[in-house]
Amino acid sequence: MALKALIFDVDGTLAETEECHREAFNQTFQEAGMTASQKWIWDQSLYRELLKTTGGKERMRAYVETENLEMPDVAALHARKTEIYNQNILAGSVGLRPGVERLIREARQVGVRLAIATTTSLPNVHSLLQANIGEGSVEWFDAICTAEDVVRKKPDPEVFQIALNQLGLKASECLAFEDSRNGLRSATDIGIPTLVTPSIYTDDQDFSESIAIVSHLGEPDIPCAHIAGFDMRATTINVNTLRTMFAN
Ligand code: XBP
Ligand code: MG
Fold first, then answer.
1. pTM higher than the cut 0.90
2. Which residue, by CA, sits nearest to atom 10 of ligand 1?
3. In what order do the strands lie in the sheet with 194-196?
4. CA 32/CA 231 separation, integer angstroms
5. Binning pLDDT at 50, 70 and 90, where does residue 44 land?
6. Calpha distance 113→219 (Å, rounded)
7. What are the φ/ψ torsions at residue 65 (nearest 5 degrees)?
8. What residues are annotated to the active site?
9. Which helix (H) or strand (E) holds 247?
10. CA-wise closest residue to 64 among 40, 84, 89
């Protein structure tokens, strides 16, 4: 089966955005008068746990339940958090991970189609692409499937299924890029082969269902390392190395 499309996760995969999400949550809590003594500050080790719940609104609700707190106005908090996050991303606070832009541009040039399947919100995806690749790069993607499109977020496969439907392709014709166990399950549960590039918050997770794990996609001056699975024997991942892996 030929490789026809690349489907990218966003947070942790295109970019290490989770610190920017975490800081936006904390600023939102602070602005709303929700204090550290009321447990409304999320440090890095707590956030690593909290990330196991995908989706910002779902994450806040899960935290309230675990900690037995009073339920705040989650929708309003999330709207403000999204505003802060987008301001920071548009100001250029987070770059793409090594090799991401290079591979996206190459795929486009050789006619391998592009899509996005994420649990984050649509404005966040637009801002990240716009700030890092430029105005108009959103149009390079034949499908951008986000939190707004689904009833059930990852690890449910719904978002990847919607991406396949919009692309009009079978799971076996696509390759997914993920950084988390929840994302990996979401893609592989419907048969999409998945390459994992672990991120700062997911480097301890189980990726045994992946086709391969590499440190990142690599640049000529920032070589990537093979971690597990199919060994592409490459220090930069390009469409040809992906095709070789895909055919095996
Ligand atoms: C990562 C997530 C997101 C972000 C927050 O999703 O779980 O919830 O942490 O984004 P993915 P929102 O890796 O699939 O992109 O606050 O917009 O939900
Ligand atoms: Mg992710």
1. yes
2. 120
3. 143-145, 113-117, 5-8, 174-178, 194-196, 212-214, 226-229
4. 49
5. very high
6. 21
7. -70, -45
8. 9, 11
9. helix 239-247
10. 40
Counting ligand 1 atoms within 8 A of each CB, the residue from 120, 154, 162, 181 with the most, and so the one to mutate, is: 120
Mean pLDDT of 202-229: 98
75 φψ region: left (φ > 0), alpha (ψ -120 to 50), beta (else): alpha
Beta bridge partners of 175: 6
Mean pLDDT score, 9-18: 98
- Does residue 248 surpass a pLDDT of 90? no
Mean pLDDT calculated for residue range 77-83: 98
Site to probe by mutation for ligand 1, drawn from 21, 50, 202 as the one with most ligand atoms within 8 Å of Cβ, is 21
The pLDDT score that the predictor gives to residue 20 is 98
- What are the beta bridge partners of residue 226? 214
Sequence-separated (6 or more) residues with CB below 8 Å from residue 107: 6, 113, 114, 239
- How crowded is residue 109: how many other Cβ atoms within 10 Å of its Cβ? 9
Q: How many residues does the chain have?
A: 248
Structure tokens at 26: 């904390």
Question: Token pair for residue 214?
Answer: 């590499």
Which parts of 54-177 fold into alpha helices (H)?
56-67, 74-90, 100-110, 122-132, 158-167
What one-character-per-residue DSSP string does 91-125 give? Answer: TT--PBPTTHHHHHHHHHHHT-EEEEE-SS-HHHH
Q: How far apart are the first and last CA of the chain?
A: 10
- Structure-token pair, residue 8: 């990218």
Strands 226-229 and 212-214 come out as antiparallel
